[in-house]
Amino acid sequence: MKYTIRHVTTVKYASPVSLARFNVRLKPAPWPGQVLHHYALTIDPQPWTIQEEYGPWIVNRSRLFVRDPLTQLTIESKMHIEVQMPAVTDVTAPSPSVADIRKQALIHRDLSAMGPASYLFASPMALKSRTIAEWARPMLDPERSILSAGNALMHAIFTQFKYDSDATDADTPPAKSFAKKRGVCQDFAHVMIVAARAHGLPAAYVSGYLRTLPPPGKPRLIGADATHAWVVLWCGDALGWIGFDPTNDCLAKTDHIYTAMGRDYADVAPIDGVFRGGGGQTMAVSVDVAPEEEAALSAS
Amino acid sequence: MASDAVLTAPAGPRLQDYPVDVAAGDLYHNASPDLAAHWQTMADGLVTMASEAGMAVHELVSRQIADLGMSFRIAGDADERDWPLTAMPLLIGADEWAEVERGLIQRARLLEAVAADLYGPQRLVAEGHVPASLVTGSRYFARNMVGLAPRGGHYIHVYAVDLARGPRGQWRVLSDRLRLANGIGYALENRLALSRGTGSLLSDIHTRRLAYFFTELRGGIARDCQRENPRIALLTPGRFNQSYPEQAHLARYLGFPLVEGRDLSVSDERLYVRTIAGPKRIDAIWRWIDTNALDPLNFDARSAIGVPDLFDAWARGGLEMANRPGVELLEAPAFSAFLPRLCSVLLGETPLLPNVATWWCGQPREADTVRKRFEELVITPAFGQRVEALEGIGPVPAASLGPEQRAALAEAMARRPMDYCGQEIVHLPTTPALIDECFVPRAFTLRAFVARDTAGNWTVMPGGFARLSASDEIQTTLMGAGDWTADVCIVDSAHRAPPGPLPLSELPSVRRGGGFLASQAADNLFWFGRYVERTEATVRVIRAILGSAIEVDAAAGSNPEVRAVLLDLLVRWSAITKETAALPAPQACRAALAEVTLPGGVGSLLAALRATGLTLRDRFAPDFWRIASRPLPPLDSHRPGALLRGARELLERMSALAGLLNENFVRGPSWRFLDLGRRIERGLALCATTGALVREADNAWSDNGEALSLLLDLCDSQITYRSRYLTSAQRNLVLDLLLLDPDNPRSLAFQLEALVAHIDALPRLSEDLLPELPLREARALLAPLTSLTVEKFAPEHLAAAENGLLSLSSAISERYFLQYEKADAPGSESLLG
Q1: pTM across the whole model
Q2: Which chain B positions have a beta carbon within 8 Å of A108's beta carbon?
Q3: For the domain A98-267, what is the CATH code?
């Protein structure tokens, strides 16, 4: 599947900010089965410096330094990207047991950001929660296959939680959104991550996009008009990381475009930074994820 | 009891009476005969010295503690406590210590080698010597530090380690500390207090000195810097940090500027401190901040105490960090389970100093062992962070858990075994502690310190920080409630020449001035000066009101109208509310003194004085600090007499502060900012009181003799006036003395001349030497005062002076102080799916 993606973020400040430094994490990092054909990041006003970096997680970071005072910042991220159908598209496919995964993750020798060891422990935003651990226990029987266990967790969140963008914000801890049983994709992903890690399973946070308009006859996916977030579970060396989307109760296939992977939201936040001055700020985001055939059609 | 004492021996605690309890060993009872003799000398010496001075033994050190201004805070406490140092030090023989030193140096070499591998080739993980999860389990593993070798060549500069001694002198490592070497400054302070309080006693028993260690520590950091004569700063989390008093003391002792994140900025991969003379480059940082809080853009975005892009400065700009960010991961208890084996893998040596036997449950076999030997072990969080089913982050004896706790722990350990370690139980030995004039056994642990020296080699502090507790449970904090601390003396059998004076070339050259002045510190100094003066002005007004209520014939406004003017002034200064001002005068005065919510209340001003003073602790002499931090005098009465005494005491305190300021502060920029604050505030108070008392509604001067006399009182110029003029208070005479006479230190002209002189002496940013805005403003303010006669000086001039002073204060803030970056959270993409 080939997509044209345009993502525009506009931040407005009530009073001018100066010496602003931003981290922008919008360019898709390399991901198995995904090919980035073209990418362009446009910043207005033009920053004093832009540094492109990769890491320390599976993430591209553009570091912006805007020296002169600004009251509005517009970030436009455009790309052509190709997504191939992953090897695993069905949770009934054969996979190691929960007990196996727990054992392998602990003794693994891969210390890299793709290795399971980095996603085994609590992280700054995905803090431990005994309540979530208890809640997840019945779904994570040691003998169960990891795909089936992941599916159970995902399905439980999808059915027990209500999508509500007013219930939480970007800093809401998972235990809180869990107590409310409400939230957005970020909260659902965090809850699933905390649940998996509580039982010794490596789980990571993924940020990315969903195709905006569903194929004919299919329902529109939730979260398609903004950046999206879901979870990847480590399913052993053979299968690697498999994407579970608890907001839509489905595996990540060709409708999901990966931007970055980290321990939680904070590692891959689309934009953060520091500056002088400011006062209030407002942010507007528009995302358009169009399959390229469709883009070609609408252009003709 | 005294009748039983041997007549020739001084009355007091005797080491001979020390009870014997040697189950886990006792430092004194296990001492060799030679060393025991030193213990005797020390103990007898303390008693003799105290009895000759006619004081209790404890007073020998408690006086020094007060003089040094030593204090500490327990986590969760708002207030600092007195430092609980017992007079009797721990004595350790040089032979025994030599073994400990060798062991510690080996361990430091090992930790350095492990850090270099994990942040370099990661051979240990690839070859299976340590599982990846042991590394990632620590929140201090800094993934973005991998592959960035330190330019100075070293990951670790300062290393602290907690030790326990076995009955036969075999020492064991309880825990490693690479994040913060807290205790290192207290060890130094303990020694200073003890040696100052006990004359030559310490050298009589051949105690090794600590000073060389600190010289070496400084040299060790300096040698890894990129420039000659590097500027090394101590980076503190700020005055609310528990160990802030220790950090401030260390900074002063080592001559390192004490800086906070907001003092610093990074530009082109170099680190600068903002000073009143513009940015100055920093070459090295001794950090007292966690890795994760160092840089909000490269580590935890929520950090408010870090420096944006500090990462770039050490990763690429050559900034030396002691210690290198990320090395803290090695202090996890889980890691100590692997160190003995890594010692042979990396160094090809067997460990000289064992650590407490530790099993990390992240490995199936070890987890099994812990399950089987559960009853005889302590369970501890594997990575120094809270885990499920255990309270706190310290070791918990498994046997002490109730059935429910056990079940919860077993369940949590089954789910996440990697979060737990089992460790053998250590019984702590005792040492004689001198508590309440009696030698009593106290369990002790010793925190030892290792640092790189001027040659880059490891050196061990000959001494350390001893923590004495009533129980022998191992604690994770430096000090807890009810604990004591003692100096640790490494004792040679004979007098040993000190390592010698420093080589001539390394002696500092003669210098004057106080180095640079950070903008933040200048800001605090300025406000400290303002608070001192504002407190004084407010209390003077209160005193005048109270005085009028007592002395019937006082010059001090017995006239109710004048009194109302003064109360109104207190309302304008936000010391009381309008409603309070309507109360009987003594009640209103008491309210103004006790007020802690309104910003102008005396209680609030003293609190602000104290809070600002805390940030300046490394610059103030203890005397100064003691006066500044004294609480309000008791105000338990509404009787004007008692209140008046309270007000007088406060005024005396402010005078004492002013006196110390004038007599003891070196005449550098620091003093100038303190004095700038005082002069501005005094000028403002002069304008306000003069305006209130002698300006009429139609904007002319009044001729009210009573008001004029009161004004002289408030400005402390009554005596001057009387000695100069034999007449009662006359308007022009008073106004000339208080506004225009440049020789009266209480006059407006005097304040402005001082302001001009101070600002003129401060550094300028540009090289063209044109006067900057604050100087131009100050000169403009002074001009009318020097050019007008009192007849021509109209109330408008006074109003202009008052506005001008406020504007000057802003100009000074803008030019010299900070407007620092504020972290924001634009990450809250509200439209997130």
Answers
A1: 0.87
A2: 131-133
A3: 3.10.620.30
